[in-house]
Amino acid sequence: MPNPTNPNPNSKDRGRFQWRAPSNIALIKYWGKKINVNVNVNTDQLPATPSISFTLENSYTEIDFSYERDESLSEFSIESMQFFFENSEQPKFQDKIYKFLKKVEGEFPFLKKYRLKIKSSNSFPHSAGIASSASSMAALALCLLSLEKVNNNSTNDEKEFLRRASEIARSFSGSAARSIYGNFVLWGESEFFPGVSSDHWAIPLSEHLKIHKNFSQMMDAVLIVDSSVKKVSSSAGHALMNEHPFKEGRYQSANKRIGQLAKVLESGDYDEFIEIVESEALTLHALMMSSSPYYLLLKPESLVLMEKIWEFRRESKIPLCFTIDAGPNIHLIYPAQYYQRVRDFIELQLAHYLDKRNWICDEMGTGPAMIIEK
Ligand code: DP6
């Protein structure tokens, strides 16, 4: 029954949709944010430098989002929402999600008239040491954009829908901006992509580059060295860049590497790809070790894995390399055609160094998908 007090007679009063959004792995890292005095969606979480990632396929978050319009509500409060993580109510996560939604309330003024039930679950175990913020915040942003569409009967322009989703996801967690698109993704304004790149949202690189077939299907084997929660959050790490003694050098090199990697993605040069990607990973950790206060997230096993990967690459001539996020786990990046040999290498030579021999086989994916719309 349409609600007679609903100002938009075309909108539905209740409904449900489910979005699946994948995680992504950065090749050129986002590390450092523009200093921001006014915290709002437009200025929050703008990156100090651009970054490039590829989107994963198997590591994703699904958010099941039910809404019901209630004209008696006059503001969006925590009582208007229920949040479930992996099917159980989690007050700590609920508070976090509520804060995120409050942050974007100005963008979605209709939120105050809704009761929401949000159920989130990940395809990867919570303890896998994979950051779920990119996938979960991308999924949440897509749900909000879908609710906006229902409510306003707004734009059917898919490009604009995704651009806005990326912008909202970015305001929740920077790297989530990239999870809105599949394959290789650029986020942040870059001199190499004038007029199309932005600090506010990400863009799919395949629309601006002709990606060489050598990079058409990349794999990411996530080698789990340690699955415990990080000692220093990424947000705290970003903040330490503000006063970092090597900040200027880092920002210059990250900007330059965007151009280098873009060129390599077109030329298909594996050697240069490997050099850029591994150097980025080591630079990220070198920045952590040289910030004030300094800290170290790598474990002895992380170093052993890096050495083993170098040795195997020398011997096998397979163009595989590693990257590392803000944690001790190693992402082994390689072209899909070498899957069997790399799998054997992991099982025979690396698994022994992993937490319960645990690793996740992932690959480049095509981006988010709406699974249910009712
Ligand atoms: C090392 O996106 O988690 O993974 O914006 O504070 O939520 P916030 O940080 P987050 O930082 C990710 C850092 C990184 C590199 C990257 O993904 O580019």
Question: Key terms for this structure?
Answer:
374 residues, alpha+beta, Ribosomal Protein S5, domain 2, Alpha-Beta Plaits, 2 domains, eight-stranded mixed beta sheet, four-stranded antiparallel beta sheet, 8 helices, globular, binds ligand DP6
Overall radius of gyration: 21 Å
Tally of contiguous helical segments: 8
Number of domains: 2
Count every beta strand, where a strand is a DSSP E run of 2 or more residues: 12
Shape: globular
Helix/strand structural class: alpha+beta
CATH class of the largest domain: Alpha Beta
H and E string: EEEEHEHHEEEHHHHEEHEE
Distance between the termini: 15 Å
Residue share in β-strands: 15-25%
Going by CATH, the architecture of the largest domain would be 2-Layer Sandwich
**Bound small molecules, deduplicated:** ligand DP6
Mean pLDDT: 93
Explain the overall architecture.
This protein is α+β, with helices and mostly antiparallel strands and 374 residues long. The protein folds into two domains: 14-210 and 366-373, Ribosomal Protein S5, domain 2; 213-363, GHMP kinase, C-terminal domain (Alpha-Beta Plaits, 2-Layer Sandwich). It has eight helices and twelve strands. It has helices at 91-103, 133-152, 158-172, 234-240, 247-267, 270-289, 300-316, 339-350, and strands spanning 14-28, 51-69, 81-85, 88-89, 114-122, 184-187, 202-204, 218-223, 321-323, 330-335, 359-363, 369-373. The strands form two sheets. Strands 1, 2, 3, 4, 5, 6, 7 and 12 form an eight-stranded mixed sheet that branches. Helix 2 (133-152) crosses helix 3 (158-172) and helix 5 runs antiparallel to helix 6. The protein is globular. It starts with 13 loop residues before the first strand and ends with a strand. The relative contact order is 0.17. The model has no long low-confidence stretch (mean pLDDT 93). The structure holds ligand DP6. Ligand DP6 binds at residues 26, 29-31, 45, 51, 131, 133, 173-175, 234-235, 238, 284, 325-326.
